[in-house]
Automatic annotation (TrEMBL), chain B:
This is Nitrate ABC transporter permease. It is a multi-pass membrane protein. The keyword Membrane applies. InterPro entries: MetI-like, MetI-like_sf. GO terms for biological process: transmembrane transport. Residues 1-10 have a biased composition (Basic and acidic residues). Keywords: Cell membrane, Membrane, Transmembrane, Transmembrane helix, Transport. One of its GO terms (cellular component) is plasma membrane. It comes from Planobispora longispora.
Length: 248, 284
C-alpha cells in the first residue's frame, strides 16, 4: 500500500505491506512523522490509499468497516465534550441498536475494566488526560470490535498508569480475542505487548522489519521486562530504529 | 460538577456548625445587600438625575419620572396589553423562530458542503451587509402591510447572523470527532443531533443572541410604517398626539422587554452550553 497526500505532495507511505492474522496483537513502531497515523487511518477506511489496498477479513476496505474500533492519538478530542463519560461510551452501542439491557451491561463492564465506574457521570473535560484516554479505550472495548486499532494511546499518561493500561490491553485482548494493531513509538512497549512488531523506516516509508516476539504469552511488567530475551529483542529493534532514523 | 465537589467537601466538616453557620448567614445578607446596591445603584442614580433635570428645566418633552410611571401603569395595564403588546411579541417570536429554523437549517447545509459554501458565501456576506431596516419598505411592497409582512421583516433581518454563525460553527467541527462518528457508525440524523448541532451550538447561540436584538429593533420599526397596532405604532401615535409621558412609558416598556428577553436568553444559553463553559473554565 502507498499513500501520498496529494494536496501538499507529501509521500507519507512509500510501500507498506503486511498481514495481521485474526486474533493477533501486532505493534507498529517507527520514527515520528514516518506515517504511522496515516497507515492506521488507511486501515480504518478513513483515508483512501493512493495505490494498493487494505483488506479486513478478505473484504477490501472502502470506508470504516462495521466491527472495527479506533482509539485515536488525539483521544481528548475524540470524546464528545457535551456528553458524560457514560454517554460517550454508550453512543456507538445505541447506533448499533444494542438493546438497552445489554447496553448498560457493556457500558458498566467497560468502565469498570478501565477503573472509571465512579466517574461515569462526569464530563470528559473534568478528567485528567490519562482518564480521558481510558474513556476512549472503554468506548472501543464496549463496542465489541473484531479489530481494534490504537494510535500511540499511552503517549500522554504517567508511567504507572501506562503500565496499568498496557496490562489492561493485554487482558482485554486475551479475553476477547480481538485482532489488535497497536501503534507506538516506544520500543519497550512494543516488545512487551506484541506478538509481532513491525518496524517502519523513516521517509520514504517501507516495512523495515517484521519481528516475531517469542516471549512467553503470559506477560508481566516485572518478570517479562527482565527476561534476557526481552533485552535481546529490544536491542535488535533499537538498532533498527536507529538505522531508520539514520537513513533519512 | 466542580461545585458539587466543593459542596461535598463543605458537608464533610460539620463539626464547627453553629459559629460558621451564623457567620455565613450574616455574610449572605451582606452579599445580597451588596448585590442589590450594584444592580439598583446606577438605575437609581439615573432616575434621580432625570428627576432633577425635569424639575429644573420644565421641558415639556421631558416629564418627571413620577408622571411617566403613572402613564406607564395607566397605559400598559389596560387592553393595550392585549391589543398592542401581545401581538407585537407574537410577531417577534414568529419572525425570530422562522429565522432560527431557516438560519440553522441552511447554515448546517452550507457548513457541511464545501461546494455549497464556496457558491453561497459571497452572497451571504452581501446580504448581511444590507442594514435590515431598509428591508421594511421593500417587503411592504412585496408582501403587503399585514402581520405577514412584519413577521417577514423580522425574520429577514434576524436570519443573517444566525445563518453565518451556524456556517462558521459547523465548519469548525473537530475532525477527530467527525472521524470518531464515522468509525462508530454515528451517521445521518444521529450525527446531526449528536455531533453537528451540539458541536456548533456555541456559534449558533452567539448568532441567536445577535439576532434577538435585531429582532426587537425590527419589530418596532416594522410597526412604525403603515400599521394599526403594536408597540412601535402606539409609541408613534403618542408622539404625534403630544402625549409625551405616554410616549416615554412606551420606550420604557421596550427597554424592559428587551432586558427580560435577554435575561431569558442567557438562562437558555447557560443550559445549552453548560459543557462549553465548564470546559472553558477548566482550560483557563
Ligand atoms: N492530512 C495531511 N495532509 C498532508 N500531509 C499530512 C497529513 N497528515 C499527515 N501528513 C504528513 O504525513 C507524514 C506522516 O504523518 P503521520 O502519519 O502523522 O506520522 P506519524 O503518526 O508516524 O507521526 C508527515 O510528514 C505529515 O506531515
Ligand atoms: Mg501519529
Amino acid at each position: 500500500m502507498r499513500k501520498v497526500y496529494e494536496d501538499r505532495g507529501v509521500e507519507a507511505l512509500r510501500e507498506v505491506t503486511f498481514e495481521v492474522d485474526a486474533g493477533e496483537l501486532v505493534c507498529v513502531v517507527g520514527p515520528s512523522g514516518c506515517g504511522k497515523t496515516t497507515l492506521l487511518r488507511c486501515v480504518a477506511g478513513l483515508l483512501p490509499p493512493t495505490a494498493g489496498s487494505v483488506r479486513v477479513g478478505g473484504v477490501p476496505v472502502t470506508g470504516p468497516p462495521p466491527r472495527m474500533a479506533v482509539v485515536f492519538q488525539e483521544y481528548g478530542r475524540s470524546l464528545f465534550p457535551w456528553m458524560t463519560v457514560r454517554q460517550n461510551v454508550e453512543l456507538p452501542l445505541k447506533e448499533k441498536k444494542v438493546p438497552a439491557g445489554r447496553r448498560n451491561e457493556l457500558v458498566a463492564g467497560a468502565l469498570a475494566a478501565v477503573g472509571l465506574a465512579d466517574v461515569a457521570d462526569a464530563h470528559p473535560w473534568q478528567l485528567s488526560g490519562g482518564m480521558q484516554q481510558r474513556v476512549a479505550i472503554a468506548r472501543a472495548v464496549a463496542y465489541e470490535p473484531q479489530v481494534l486499532l490504537m494510535d500511540e494511546p499511552f503517549a500522554a499518561v504517567d508511567a504507572q498508569t501506562r503500565a496499568d493500561l498496557e496490562d489492561l490491553i493485554l487482558a482485554l485482548w486475551r479475553d476477547l480475542g480481538v485482532t489488535t494493531l497497536f501503534v507506538t513509538h516506544d520500543i519497550d512497549e512494543a516488545v512487551y505487548l506484541g506478538q509481532r512488531v513491525i518496524v517502519l523506516s523513516g521517509s520514504p516509508t517501507v516495512v523495515m522489519e517484521d519481528l516475531k516476539i517469542d516471549l512467553p504469552p503470559e506477560r508481566d511488567q516485572l518478570t517479562t521486562r527482565s527476561l534476557p530475551r526481552f533485552a535481546d529483542l529490544r536491542g535488535r529493534l533499537y538498532a533498527q530504529i536507529q538505522r531508520a532514523r539514520g537513513d533519512r | 460538577m466542580n461545585e458539587t465537589g466543593r459542596d461535598a467537601a463543605r458537608v464533610k466538616a460539620p463539626g464547627e456548625a453553629p459559629g460558621p453557620g451564623r457567620g455565613a448567614r450574616a455574610g449572605w445578607a451582606g452579599r445580597v445587600a451588596a448585590r442589590v446596591l450594584t444592580v439598583a445603584g446606577v438605575p437609581a442614580l439615573l432616575v434621580l438625575a432625570w428627576q432633577v433635570y425635569s424639575s429644573l428645566s420644565e421641558n415639556f418633552y421631558v416629564p418627571a419620572p413620577g408622571r411617566v410611571a403613572r402613564a406607564f401603569v395607566e397605559t400598559w395595564f389596560s387592553e393595550r396589553l392585549l391589543d398592542d403588546v401581545l401581538p407585537s411579541l407574537a410577531r417577534l417570536l414568529a419572525g425570530y423562530a422562522l429565522a432560527a429554523a431557516a438560519g440553522v437549517g441552511l447554515g448546517v447545509a452550507i457548513g457541511l458542503s464545501p461546494r455549497l459554501r464556496a457558491a453561497a458565501e459571497p452572497v451571504l456576506e452581501f446580504f448581511r451587509a444590507i442594514p435590515p431596516p431598509v428591508l421594511v419598505p421593500l417587503i411592504m411592497v412585496l408582501a403587503g402591510i399585514d402581520d405577514g409582512m412584519k413577521v417577514l421583516v423580522i425574520a429577514s433581518g434576524c436570519v443573517w447572523p444566525i445563518l453565518l454563525n451556524t456556517v462558521e460553527g459547523v465548519r469548525a467541527l473537530d475532525e477527530v470527532l467527525s472521524d470518531t462518528c464515522r468509525m462508530y457508525g454515528v451517521r445521518g440524523p444521529s450525527r446531526l443531533r449528536h455531533l453537528v448541532l451540539r458541536g456548533a451550538s456555541p456559534q449558533i447561540m452567539a448568532g441567536l443572541r445577535q439576532a434577538l436584538s435585531i429582532g426587537i429593533i425590527l419589530m418596532v420599526i416594522s410597526e412604525m410604517f403603515a400599521s394599526s397596532s403594536g408597540l412601535g405604532f402606539t409609541i408613534v401615535l403618542f408622539q404625534r398626539g403630544f402625549e409625551i409621558p405616554e410616549m416615554w412609558s412606551g420606550i420604557l416598556l421596550l427597554g424592559l422587554l428587551g432586558y427580560t428577553l435577554a435575561l431569558l436568553f442567557r438562562r437558555l444559553e447557560r443550559r445549552v452550553l453548560s459543557w462549553h463553559r465548564g470546559r472553558g473554565v477548566d482550560r483557563a
